[in-house]
Amino acid sequence: MTRVVALANQKGGVGKTTTAINLGASLAACERKVLLVDLDPQANATSGLGFSKNEGQSMYQVILDGLALRAIVRPTELPSLFIAPSSVDLVGAEVELSDADRREFRVQGAIEAAKGEFDYILIDSPPSLGLLTINGLTAADSVLVPMQCEYFAMEGVSQLLTTIERVRDSLNPELEIEGIALTMYDDRMNLARQVAQEVRGHFGDKVYRTVIPRNVRLGEAPSFGKPIILYDIRSRGSEAYVSLAKEFIERAENVRA
User: Fold this and answer.
1) Which regions of the chain does DSSP assign to beta strands (E)?
2) Among the listed residues 249, 247, 229, 255, the one whose alpha carbon sits nearest the alpha carbon of residue 25
3) Where are the domains positioned within the chain?
């Protein structure tokens, strides 16, 4: 069975798209077939895998025109990783969908037709709690929350959890928390250690054991259109995302079993 996981955090700059790209790539390296759906109008997951933000059909046509998802899916350098690209056109999608019928279910309908072709479908949501993010949450089985180890992190996650509850109540009763991934961690900073401790105390085993460090090579990789395992497989960032992928698989496939 395909598992659909939305990556969401309305706070920008927390490593959400970095996690979407590199978790997807690491899952593919673990011989899982993965589709990354880029729902963010900034299209950073798209460009981060080497594709243009302004070329060809994208999730805009899927959401607004009903184009089949498989019509836009593109292969990447990794044989088991595919992307459904975004484009800058998605900026206007929320306005254009405002009066549309079943507007919260556009992505769910598109993904439903692609289930069975992939082991995992990861959805990279925008850094907001608008209609595109709601579409991603409605389509997903679960939510993975990338969370930066800094002062306002808990406040942002509490707002997201409120939104998840509302989506569960009205649109997707099966939606659950897949896990919380601590990102951009610097163990030299007392604050980072304190936030990590507080998050683990609050969310318990929902927090992944693997922590993603601050890493220069992780920041460089998107400008070359590559996930970190293709850009610098020996970097700390690459090792962390491969570890996260193994932990993710262990949890997800234990749930299935």
Assistant:
1) 3-7, 34-38, 74-75, 81-84, 120-124, 142-148, 176-183
2) 229
3) 3-256
What is the residue-wise DSSP string for 231-246?
H-TTSHHHHHHHHHHH
Give the global pTM: 0.95
Residue 73: how many other CB atoms lie within 10 Å: 17
| Rounded distance between C-alpha atoms, residue 119 and residue 135, angstroms | 20
Cα-based distances in Å from 238 to 25, 53, 257:
10, 25, 28
**């975004």: which residue's tokens?**
86
Token duo for residue 135: 């579409």
pLDDT in tens, 215-252: 999 999 999 999 999 999 999 999 999 999 999 999 98
Nearest Cα neighbor of 121 from 17, 15, 37 is 37
Q: What is the dihedral of CA 130, 183, 79, 143, to 10 degrees?
A: -40
Q: Domain 3-256 in CATH: superfamily?
A: P-loop containing nucleotide triphosphate hydrolases (3.40.50.300)
Taking alpha carbons only, the member of 160, 225, 152 closest to residue 195 is 152
**Torsion angle of C-alpha atoms 54, 59, 60, 62, degrees rounded to 10:** 140
